[in-house]
Amino acid sequence: MAVESPLYLDACAAAPLAEQVIAAMLAAYQGAWANPSSLHGFGFEAADCLERSRQAIAAALGFPASWLTFCSGGTEASHAALLGAASGLPTGRLVISAVEHPAVQAAAHQLQAQGWELAIWPVDGVGRVDLAWLDRLLAPPTRLVSVLWGQSEVGTLQPIETIGAACRRAGVLFHSDAVQVVGHQPLAIEALPVDVLTFTAHKIQGPRGIGALVARPDLALGALIGGGGQEAGRRGGTEAVALAAGFAAAIELAQARLKACGGTDPLEPERDRLLAALEPLAGVTITGCRQRRLPHHLSLVLNSPSGQPLPGRQAVAGLWQRGLAVSSGTACASGRASGSPVLQAMGFPPELAGSGLRLSLGPWLTPEQLRSLPDRVRAALLVVQADLG
Ligand SMILES: Cc1ncc(COP(=O)(O)O)c(C=O)c1O
User: Fold this and answer.
1) Cα–Cα distance between 93 and 137 in angstroms, integer?
2) What are the boundaries of each domain within the chain?
3) Is it true that domain 19-258 has CATH number 3.40.50.720?
4) Whose CA is nearest to atom 4 of ligand 1?
5) CB under 8 Å to 249, separation ≥6 — which residues?
6) pLDDT band at 336 (very low <50, low <70, confident <90, very high)
7) What is the pTM of this model?
8) Which residues are catalytic?
9) What is the model's pLDDT at position 117?
10) CATH class of 265-388
Protein backbone atom coordinates (compact mmCIF):
# COMPACT_ATOMS: atom_id res chain seq x y z
CA MET A 1 0.00 0.00 0.00
CA ALA A 2 1.36 3.45 -0.91
CA VAL A 3 2.20 5.55 2.15
CA GLU A 4 0.58 8.97 1.93
CA SER A 5 2.97 11.85 2.50
CA PRO A 6 2.20 14.13 5.45
CA LEU A 7 0.10 17.20 4.72
CA TYR A 8 0.89 20.55 6.24
CA LEU A 9 -2.42 22.14 7.27
CA ASP A 10 -1.07 24.75 9.66
CA ALA A 11 -0.67 27.87 7.48
CA CYS A 12 -1.90 30.12 10.27
CA ALA A 13 1.05 29.05 12.45
CA ALA A 14 3.74 29.45 9.76
CA ALA A 15 3.96 28.70 6.07
CA PRO A 16 6.83 26.98 4.25
CA LEU A 17 9.02 29.40 2.31
CA ALA A 18 8.05 29.76 -1.33
CA GLU A 19 10.78 29.04 -3.87
CA GLN A 20 10.57 32.61 -5.17
CA VAL A 21 11.08 33.87 -1.62
CA ILE A 22 14.20 31.76 -1.16
CA ALA A 23 15.51 33.00 -4.54
CA ALA A 24 14.90 36.64 -3.61
CA MET A 25 16.61 36.18 -0.27
CA LEU A 26 19.57 34.36 -1.78
CA ALA A 27 20.04 37.15 -4.31
CA ALA A 28 19.92 39.72 -1.51
CA TYR A 29 22.33 37.75 0.70
CA GLN A 30 24.74 37.60 -2.24
CA GLY A 31 24.36 41.06 -3.70
CA ALA A 32 22.98 43.27 -0.94
CA TRP A 33 24.74 41.91 2.14
CA ALA A 34 26.27 45.20 3.29
CA ASN A 35 24.96 47.60 5.90
CA PRO A 36 22.34 49.78 4.17
CA SER A 37 23.53 52.78 6.20
CA SER A 38 27.09 52.54 4.80
CA LEU A 39 28.10 55.38 2.50
CA HIS A 40 29.75 53.36 -0.25
CA GLY A 41 28.63 51.33 -3.21
CA PHE A 42 28.12 48.11 -1.22
CA GLY A 43 25.95 49.98 1.26
CA PHE A 44 24.06 51.73 -1.54
CA GLU A 45 23.30 48.33 -3.04
CA ALA A 46 21.83 47.10 0.27
CA ALA A 47 19.88 50.35 0.80
CA ASP A 48 18.51 50.09 -2.71
CA CYS A 49 17.38 46.50 -2.16
CA LEU A 50 15.71 47.48 1.12
CA GLU A 51 13.85 50.39 -0.46
CA ARG A 52 12.78 48.32 -3.45
CA SER A 53 11.32 45.77 -1.03
CA ARG A 54 9.53 48.50 0.91
CA GLN A 55 8.10 49.93 -2.28
CA ALA A 56 6.99 46.54 -3.57
CA ILE A 57 5.10 45.77 -0.36
CA ALA A 58 3.53 49.22 -0.24
CA ALA A 59 2.47 49.08 -3.89
CA ALA A 60 0.96 45.61 -3.48
CA LEU A 61 -1.02 46.59 -0.39
CA GLY A 62 -1.99 50.11 -1.39
CA PHE A 63 -0.20 52.62 0.83
CA PRO A 64 2.76 55.02 0.52
CA ALA A 65 6.10 53.30 1.08
CA SER A 66 7.14 55.89 3.66
CA TRP A 67 4.43 54.57 6.01
CA LEU A 68 6.18 51.19 6.38
CA THR A 69 8.61 50.36 9.18
CA PHE A 70 10.26 46.96 9.06
CA CYS A 71 10.64 45.17 12.38
CA SER A 72 11.12 41.60 13.62
CA GLY A 73 7.56 40.29 13.21
CA GLY A 74 3.95 40.64 14.25
CA THR A 75 4.66 40.56 17.97
CA GLU A 76 7.14 43.42 17.82
CA ALA A 77 4.96 45.34 15.38
CA SER A 78 1.95 45.22 17.70
CA HIS A 79 4.08 46.31 20.65
CA ALA A 80 5.53 49.15 18.58
CA ALA A 81 2.04 50.17 17.47
CA LEU A 82 0.43 50.25 20.90
CA LEU A 83 3.34 51.40 23.04
CA GLY A 84 4.50 53.82 20.34
CA ALA A 85 1.06 55.37 19.88
CA ALA A 86 0.46 55.59 23.62
CA SER A 87 3.79 57.38 24.15
CA GLY A 88 2.38 60.40 22.28
CA LEU A 89 -0.88 60.47 24.25
CA PRO A 90 -1.97 61.41 27.76
CA THR A 91 -2.80 58.31 29.81
CA GLY A 92 -6.33 57.14 29.11
CA ARG A 93 -8.30 54.00 28.30
CA LEU A 94 -7.16 51.32 25.87
CA VAL A 95 -9.80 49.00 24.43
CA ILE A 96 -8.84 45.61 23.02
CA SER A 97 -11.11 42.79 21.90
CA ALA A 98 -11.54 39.67 24.03
CA VAL A 99 -9.98 37.58 21.23
CA GLU A 100 -6.70 39.41 20.59
CA HIS A 101 -3.51 37.53 19.91
CA PRO A 102 -1.26 37.23 23.01
CA ALA A 103 1.09 39.80 21.40
CA VAL A 104 -1.51 42.57 21.67
CA GLN A 105 -2.57 41.41 25.10
CA ALA A 106 1.03 41.62 26.32
CA ALA A 107 1.47 45.14 24.97
CA ALA A 108 -1.86 46.14 26.54
CA HIS A 109 -0.75 44.82 29.91
CA GLN A 110 2.43 46.89 29.65
CA LEU A 111 0.31 49.98 29.11
CA GLN A 112 -1.90 48.99 32.02
CA ALA A 113 1.22 48.86 34.21
CA GLN A 114 1.96 52.41 33.03
CA GLY A 115 -1.42 53.62 34.31
CA TRP A 116 -3.68 53.03 31.30
CA GLU A 117 -7.14 51.67 31.98
CA LEU A 118 -7.72 48.48 30.00
CA ALA A 119 -11.20 47.60 28.73
CA ILE A 120 -11.94 44.28 27.05
CA TRP A 121 -14.46 44.38 24.21
CA PRO A 122 -16.75 41.33 24.49
CA VAL A 123 -17.39 39.08 21.49
CA ASP A 124 -20.42 37.03 20.49
CA GLY A 125 -20.62 33.27 19.99
CA VAL A 126 -18.76 33.43 16.66
CA GLY A 127 -16.00 35.66 18.00
CA ARG A 128 -17.14 38.96 16.52
CA VAL A 129 -16.95 42.06 18.69
CA ASP A 130 -20.38 43.12 19.82
CA LEU A 131 -21.04 46.46 18.10
CA ALA A 132 -23.69 47.33 20.70
CA TRP A 133 -20.72 48.23 22.91
CA LEU A 134 -19.15 50.58 20.38
CA ASP A 135 -20.36 53.97 21.65
CA ARG A 136 -19.83 53.10 25.30
CA LEU A 137 -16.31 51.81 24.65
CA LEU A 138 -15.28 54.81 22.55
CA ALA A 139 -16.45 57.38 25.11
CA PRO A 140 -13.76 59.28 27.06
CA PRO A 141 -11.26 58.46 28.46
CA THR A 142 -10.70 55.99 25.56
CA ARG A 143 -7.75 57.10 23.43
CA LEU A 144 -6.63 53.89 21.79
CA VAL A 145 -8.41 50.82 20.35
CA SER A 146 -6.86 47.59 19.08
CA VAL A 147 -8.95 44.95 17.33
CA LEU A 148 -7.42 42.15 15.31
CA TRP A 149 -8.75 41.83 11.80
CA GLY A 150 -8.64 38.06 11.32
CA GLN A 151 -8.77 35.83 14.41
CA SER A 152 -6.09 33.17 14.08
CA GLU A 153 -7.80 30.48 16.13
CA VAL A 154 -11.41 30.65 14.92
CA GLY A 155 -10.96 32.56 11.65
CA THR A 156 -13.52 35.28 12.32
CA LEU A 157 -13.03 38.60 10.54
CA GLN A 158 -13.86 41.70 12.57
CA PRO A 159 -15.77 44.66 11.09
CA ILE A 160 -12.71 46.85 11.17
CA GLU A 161 -14.09 49.43 8.69
CA THR A 162 -17.05 50.08 11.01
CA ILE A 163 -14.85 50.19 14.10
CA GLY A 164 -12.26 52.40 12.40
CA ALA A 165 -14.87 54.87 11.15
CA ALA A 166 -16.34 55.13 14.65
CA CYS A 167 -12.86 55.66 16.11
CA ARG A 168 -12.28 58.47 13.60
CA ARG A 169 -15.53 60.17 14.65
CA ALA A 170 -14.60 59.82 18.32
CA GLY A 171 -11.00 61.03 17.80
CA VAL A 172 -9.62 57.71 19.04
CA LEU A 173 -6.54 56.02 17.52
CA PHE A 174 -7.14 52.62 15.97
CA HIS A 175 -4.70 49.74 15.55
CA SER A 176 -5.50 46.48 13.84
CA ASP A 177 -3.43 43.30 13.82
CA ALA A 178 -3.76 42.13 10.22
CA VAL A 179 -1.27 39.24 10.49
CA GLN A 180 -3.74 36.59 9.32
CA VAL A 181 -5.51 38.71 6.70
CA VAL A 182 -2.63 40.00 4.56
CA GLY A 183 -2.22 37.83 1.48
CA HIS A 184 -5.74 36.40 1.66
CA GLN A 185 -7.77 39.32 0.36
CA PRO A 186 -6.92 42.34 -1.79
CA LEU A 187 -6.02 45.31 0.37
CA ALA A 188 -5.93 49.08 -0.10
CA ILE A 189 -4.53 50.02 3.29
CA GLU A 190 -4.40 53.77 2.68
CA ALA A 191 -8.19 53.82 2.20
CA LEU A 192 -8.89 52.02 5.47
CA PRO A 193 -9.93 54.00 8.55
CA VAL A 194 -7.01 52.51 10.47
CA ASP A 195 -4.18 54.55 11.99
CA VAL A 196 -1.72 51.73 12.37
CA LEU A 197 -1.79 48.23 10.92
CA THR A 198 0.63 45.38 11.61
CA PHE A 199 1.51 42.14 9.84
CA THR A 200 4.26 39.57 9.45
CA ALA A 201 5.98 37.66 6.65
CA HIS A 202 6.01 34.10 7.89
CA LYS A 203 2.29 33.39 7.54
CA ILE A 204 2.43 33.95 3.79
CA GLN A 205 5.48 31.88 2.84
CA GLY A 206 7.90 34.66 3.72
CA PRO A 207 10.81 34.37 6.17
CA ARG A 208 10.45 34.26 9.95
CA GLY A 209 11.88 37.28 11.75
CA ILE A 210 10.46 40.17 9.76
CA GLY A 211 7.22 42.08 10.12
CA ALA A 212 5.71 45.40 9.22
CA LEU A 213 4.25 48.36 11.00
CA VAL A 214 2.23 50.61 8.70
CA ALA A 215 1.42 53.94 10.31
CA ARG A 216 -0.18 57.12 9.01
CA PRO A 217 2.39 59.93 8.88
CA ASP A 218 0.36 62.21 11.16
CA LEU A 219 0.60 59.67 13.97
CA ALA A 220 3.23 60.59 16.59
CA LEU A 221 4.65 57.11 17.05
CA GLY A 222 7.43 56.84 19.61
CA ALA A 223 10.12 54.28 18.72
CA LEU A 224 9.94 51.02 20.66
CA ILE A 225 13.61 50.31 19.94
CA GLY A 226 16.06 53.19 19.71
CA GLY A 227 19.51 53.07 18.18
CA GLY A 228 21.20 54.30 15.06
CA GLY A 229 18.23 56.09 13.55
CA GLN A 230 17.36 53.34 11.08
CA GLU A 231 13.90 53.15 9.54
CA ALA A 232 13.59 56.96 9.67
CA GLY A 233 14.28 56.85 13.40
CA ARG A 234 11.29 54.59 14.03
CA ARG A 235 13.17 51.35 14.70
CA GLY A 236 16.83 51.06 15.61
CA GLY A 237 19.07 48.22 14.46
CA THR A 238 20.72 47.29 11.18
CA GLU A 239 17.95 46.35 8.79
CA ALA A 240 17.46 42.72 7.72
CA VAL A 241 17.77 43.44 4.01
CA ALA A 242 17.49 39.85 2.76
CA LEU A 243 14.46 39.18 4.96
CA ALA A 244 12.83 42.32 3.56
CA ALA A 245 13.49 41.03 0.03
CA GLY A 246 11.87 37.71 0.95
CA PHE A 247 8.93 39.52 2.57
CA ALA A 248 8.35 41.54 -0.62
CA ALA A 249 8.53 38.41 -2.79
CA ALA A 250 6.00 36.66 -0.53
CA ILE A 251 3.57 39.58 -0.64
CA GLU A 252 3.87 39.85 -4.42
CA LEU A 253 3.22 36.13 -4.82
CA ALA A 254 0.15 36.27 -2.60
CA GLN A 255 -1.21 39.28 -4.47
CA ALA A 256 -0.63 37.58 -7.82
CA ARG A 257 -2.58 34.55 -6.57
CA LEU A 258 -5.49 36.74 -5.51
CA LYS A 259 -5.44 38.62 -8.80
CA ALA A 260 -5.41 35.44 -10.85
CA CYS A 261 -8.54 34.37 -8.98
CA GLY A 262 -10.50 37.60 -9.48
CA GLY A 263 -9.58 39.01 -6.07
CA THR A 264 -10.49 35.95 -4.03
CA ASP A 265 -8.33 33.38 -2.31
CA PRO A 266 -8.23 30.23 -4.50
CA LEU A 267 -8.17 28.16 -1.32
CA GLU A 268 -11.62 29.25 -0.24
CA PRO A 269 -13.57 26.66 -2.27
CA GLU A 270 -11.15 23.97 -1.06
CA ARG A 271 -11.75 25.04 2.54
CA ASP A 272 -15.50 24.94 1.87
CA ARG A 273 -15.28 21.38 0.54
CA LEU A 274 -13.42 20.36 3.67
CA LEU A 275 -16.00 22.09 5.84
CA ALA A 276 -18.83 20.33 4.04
CA ALA A 277 -17.14 16.97 4.65
CA LEU A 278 -16.46 17.51 8.36
CA GLU A 279 -19.53 19.36 9.53
CA PRO A 280 -21.93 16.38 9.33
CA LEU A 281 -19.68 14.25 11.59
CA ALA A 282 -21.18 13.53 15.00
CA GLY A 283 -19.14 15.35 17.64
CA VAL A 284 -17.83 18.07 15.30
CA THR A 285 -18.91 21.68 15.89
CA ILE A 286 -17.56 24.33 13.55
CA THR A 287 -16.34 27.44 15.40
CA GLY A 288 -16.10 31.08 14.28
CA CYS A 289 -18.11 33.10 11.81
CA ARG A 290 -19.42 31.40 8.66
CA GLN A 291 -19.71 34.29 6.24
CA ARG A 292 -16.97 36.62 7.40
CA ARG A 293 -13.97 34.40 8.03
CA LEU A 294 -10.44 33.85 6.78
CA PRO A 295 -10.78 32.04 3.44
CA HIS A 296 -8.14 29.37 4.10
CA HIS A 297 -9.15 28.63 7.67
CA LEU A 298 -11.36 25.99 9.26
CA SER A 299 -11.82 25.55 13.00
CA LEU A 300 -13.88 23.20 15.08
CA VAL A 301 -14.44 21.79 18.51
CA LEU A 302 -14.06 18.01 18.69
CA ASN A 303 -16.20 15.77 20.85
CA SER A 304 -16.62 12.04 20.76
CA PRO A 305 -19.71 11.00 18.76
CA SER A 306 -21.49 10.63 22.11
CA GLY A 307 -20.66 14.24 23.03
CA GLN A 308 -17.63 13.81 25.31
CA PRO A 309 -15.10 16.69 24.80
CA LEU A 310 -11.80 15.37 23.44
CA PRO A 311 -8.49 17.02 24.38
CA GLY A 312 -7.35 19.14 21.41
CA ARG A 313 -3.66 18.53 22.03
CA GLN A 314 -4.14 14.77 21.95
CA ALA A 315 -6.27 15.11 18.83
CA VAL A 316 -3.43 17.06 17.19
CA ALA A 317 -1.01 14.25 18.09
CA GLY A 318 -3.46 11.64 16.77
CA LEU A 319 -3.93 13.48 13.49
CA TRP A 320 -0.19 13.83 13.11
CA GLN A 321 0.17 10.04 13.50
CA ARG A 322 -2.08 9.91 10.45
CA GLY A 323 0.05 12.39 8.54
CA LEU A 324 -1.96 15.56 9.12
CA ALA A 325 -0.21 18.61 10.64
CA VAL A 326 -2.88 20.77 12.30
CA SER A 327 -3.08 22.74 15.51
CA SER A 328 -5.28 23.33 18.50
CA GLY A 329 -5.57 27.01 19.35
CA THR A 330 -2.84 29.43 18.29
CA ALA A 331 0.67 28.10 17.91
CA CYS A 332 1.85 30.74 20.38
CA ALA A 333 -0.47 29.40 23.08
CA SER A 334 -0.06 25.74 22.29
CA GLY A 335 1.94 25.15 25.47
CA ARG A 336 -1.07 26.20 27.53
CA ALA A 337 -2.59 23.32 29.48
CA SER A 338 -5.97 24.96 30.13
CA GLY A 339 -8.64 25.60 27.52
CA SER A 340 -8.50 28.30 24.88
CA PRO A 341 -9.26 31.81 26.22
CA VAL A 342 -10.60 32.67 22.75
CA LEU A 343 -13.22 29.90 22.84
CA GLN A 344 -14.07 30.83 26.42
CA ALA A 345 -14.54 34.48 25.44
CA MET A 346 -16.97 33.19 22.78
CA GLY A 347 -19.01 31.47 25.48
CA PHE A 348 -17.71 27.91 25.19
CA PRO A 349 -17.64 26.25 28.63
CA PRO A 350 -14.13 25.52 29.98
CA GLU A 351 -14.56 21.75 29.46
CA LEU A 352 -15.09 22.34 25.71
CA ALA A 353 -12.53 25.12 25.33
CA GLY A 354 -9.67 22.59 25.35
CA SER A 355 -11.11 20.73 22.38
CA GLY A 356 -10.44 23.22 19.61
CA LEU A 357 -8.77 22.22 16.34
CA ARG A 358 -7.61 24.45 13.47
CA LEU A 359 -6.85 23.43 9.91
CA SER A 360 -5.41 26.12 7.66
CA LEU A 361 -4.57 25.59 4.01
CA GLY A 362 -1.83 26.99 1.82
CA PRO A 363 -0.72 27.10 -1.81
CA TRP A 364 1.84 24.33 -1.29
CA LEU A 365 -0.99 21.77 -1.33
CA THR A 366 -1.15 20.16 -4.78
CA PRO A 367 -4.45 19.82 -6.68
CA GLU A 368 -4.35 16.09 -6.00
CA GLN A 369 -3.77 16.59 -2.27
CA LEU A 370 -6.60 19.10 -2.16
CA ARG A 371 -8.90 16.71 -3.98
CA SER A 372 -8.35 13.94 -1.46
CA LEU A 373 -8.23 16.25 1.55
CA PRO A 374 -11.87 16.06 2.71
CA ASP A 375 -11.89 12.23 2.67
CA ARG A 376 -8.48 12.02 4.28
CA VAL A 377 -9.25 14.44 7.11
CA ARG A 378 -12.69 12.94 7.73
CA ALA A 379 -11.26 9.41 7.96
CA ALA A 380 -8.48 10.55 10.31
CA LEU A 381 -10.89 12.43 12.56
CA LEU A 382 -13.10 9.36 12.86
CA VAL A 383 -10.11 7.30 13.97
CA VAL A 384 -9.01 9.97 16.46
CA GLN A 385 -12.53 10.16 17.88
CA ALA A 386 -12.58 6.38 18.28
CA ASP A 387 -9.09 6.34 19.89
CA LEU A 388 -9.74 9.18 22.33
CA GLY A 389 -13.46 8.71 22.95
C1 LIG B 1 -3.02 37.27 14.75
C2 LIG B 1 -1.56 37.20 15.05
N3 LIG B 1 -0.93 38.28 15.51
C4 LIG B 1 0.39 38.25 15.79
C5 LIG B 1 1.15 37.13 15.62
C6 LIG B 1 2.61 37.14 15.96
O7 LIG B 1 3.40 37.27 14.82
P8 LIG B 1 4.96 36.92 14.87
O9 LIG B 1 5.03 35.44 15.09
O10 LIG B 1 5.49 37.35 13.55
O11 LIG B 1 5.55 37.68 16.00
C12 LIG B 1 0.53 35.96 15.15
C13 LIG B 1 1.30 34.72 14.98
O14 LIG B 1 0.86 33.66 15.38
C15 LIG B 1 -0.87 36.00 14.86
O16 LIG B 1 -1.51 34.91 14.42
Assistant:
1) 9
2) 19-258, 265-388
3) no
4) 74
5) 18, 20, 21, 23, 24, 25, 206
6) low
7) 0.96
8) 332
9) 98
10) alpha beta
